[in-house]
User: Fold these one by one.
Assistant:
Number 1:
Amino acid sequence: MGQRKEQRRPFNRDVEYWNDFYKNKFFMSEPTAFARTILPYLKPGKKLIDVGCGNGRDSLFFYQSGINVLGIDASDVAIGQLQGKAKEGKLSFLCGDFTRQPDEAETYDYCYSRFTLHAISQEQSDLLFQHAARILKDGGVIWIEARSVHDDLYGQGIPLGKNEFLFDGHYRRFIEKKGLKKELEKAGFSVVYMEESRDFAPFQNERPAIIRAVGVKKGNRRTGGQGNGDEI
Ligand SMILES: C[S@@+](CC[C@H](N)C(=O)[O-])C[C@H]1O[C@@H](n2cnc3c(N)ncnc32)[C@H](O)[C@@H]1O
């Protein structure tokens, strides 16, 4: 399959892989180190959208910490498992494309993207940032953690295009710090933090090369001491 055709495949191209993952493989329920790290910067009562929430381990953690959460994922299996945990007005889950949903404007304080950027194409990533800029309030914050081009998995599988590979039945696109910063800025974010490390997400014997980034949505109105960005 040519790389162009591959990139044009729909948002849920890997839905079978992820359904199988959430159905049959280990069910990781502990919140991630990234979620724990950023929690002190989040204010209770604020609204967070977890894009690519997977089994909801971080969505549930944020909700239990007093944040109102919407988790979105393309996997109907993952979202199906989470529906019973929803709490009206405080915690909800949606099966769909996080580059487009929900169809609201200026609603969220935080957009949380953990290990999802490297699961989507460049085109989808651009759409996600545009969408995040639309649904975040001025001063709203996007929190990102994703695999970098220096990750050991880079190069494994079938090459598709720049930094993209089809490996073990699913798609990965590895992220470059410089490019990520430019893309966030183009979408209307100020990048207030960006770092790469192998200490961010150790898992069993692996120490993946991970980029963390934080962007604050630039706005027309002054946020003063009330904006989320001032506290970072
Ligand atoms: C590596 S998992 C990360 C899950 C979770 N954030 C975590 O850290 O455990 C990537 C998730 O992104 C979801 N995903 C990928 N592209 C998507 C899209 N366009 N819309 C919604 N979900 C998507 C997949 O279904 C999968 O559950």
Number 2:
Amino acid sequence: MTSPNTNKSTGSNSDSSAIPLLEIVDLHVNVEDKEILKGVNLTINAGEIHAIMGRNGSGKSTLSYALMGHPRYKVTSGKMLYKGQEISEMSPDQRAKLGLALAFQYPVSIPGVSVSNFLRKTVNAVRGRDIPVKEFRLELKALMAKLGVKDEFLSRYVNDGFSGGEKKRLEILQLSMLNPSLAILDETDSGLDIDALKTVSEGVNALSKADTAILLITHYQRMLNYVQPQFVHVFQDGKIVASGGSELALELEDRGYEWVTSEMQPTPGTGPNATKTSSSSSSSSPAVVGAK
Ligand SMILES: Nc1ncnc2c1ncn2[C@@H]1O[C@H](COP(=O)(O)OP(=O)(O)O)[C@@H](O)[C@H]1O
Ligand SMILES: [Mg+2]
């Protein structure tokens, strides 16, 4: 099968079983006229957990920004289909309403805006209706208890003077409130001590149980001790060069990234599917996903 039809939203909210949640095909993205993504292929189905690992500067954050529609990241060719709809031309809030959410690698602070106001505005905007304050509080408090976020958090300004761990907890709290169909977590593990890492991971696992697909972008394997991906992809120089199961993460931890290029470069048919771009739109999934 090729990608599910390019024509707009046909059947997107009925019988979605045949349509991948996210299908990225040969995606090229420029940042300030420099090509950063050079043919990314990736397919994610509802409820799956995928990890993308790769060196700094390989383009992982660029992929997450491109998915969310940051205006600086220009799609020059390829496709990004979400629930069967092309999203490249959509605004970030349209994408959020479709169910995409991103936890940023570097969350920004918003002095003057309290956490509780910020969360309520965001959640109302994405859900498209004003949730009664009481109902909102109840939902929020339950999640805060789970994520080990203290009450005093709510009246503080967003990320203003927050520690690294507090910022990441807030990101997960926000994601959980949004209840997206795909949560993208960009280096959510960075800067976390072991306790924070555990609680944040529990939050991610709870999201996953609620049938949210997860795209976990990470440089290190350690978060994958707590959040188990079914699929691991290696990102290099703007594209996915290898994919496999969770054992691939351990191998990367063990051996670094260098061996991937020499041993796993496109030799279709051996090991977890090494990924080739383009010209693969016929036959099965062009994207990826190594067996397992
Ligand atoms: N706003 C930007 N302006 C110019 N170059 C950028 C910008 N954002 C990212 N890049 C470049 O794109 C490449 C990939 O960066 P990034 O996606 O942040 O990688 P990663 O998240 O894997 O560390 C790097 O070479 C980086 O310098
Ligand atoms: Mg990054």
